[in-house]
Specification:
It is globular and about 30 Å long. The protein is α/β, with parallel strands linked by helices. It has a five-stranded parallel beta sheet with strand order 2-1-3-4-5, sandwiched between helices. Helix 3 links the parallel strand 3 and strand 4. The chain contains five helices and five strands, in the order E-H-E-H-E-H-E-H-E-H. The chain has one domain: Rossmann fold. The longest helix has 12 residues.
Amino acid sequence: METDTQKRILIVDDDAVYAAQVKNWLLEKYHVDVVSSGSQALRFLSMKKVDLILLDYEMPEMDGAEVLEKLRSDPEMKGLQVVFLTGTEEKEELGRMMGLRPNGYLLKIATKDRIMSFVKQQLE
């Protein structure tokens, strides 16, 4: 059930199965929208306000780094909370990702409980 005070999360991921799974988990407590590309995310965000973006780091056409760069350069969107979703656990890649200054990252292998706890922490 959606309420006026319910937080809105945007999931940006080209893996439709993964995005649907995370959306279903988060729908227990949040309003959740899903788009499948960086350009769709930017269009969506120009029309609707969100409280948190779960952004796939590796996508075709426009990857998560490019989306984050565009958000941070837009005065109206630079303060949005952005958390990268990633399938990699390589320290070098994670270091490069965190160098872009997202609000954090989640591994795609994270459990439902881990994702729910992390999202709750980000939105408090």
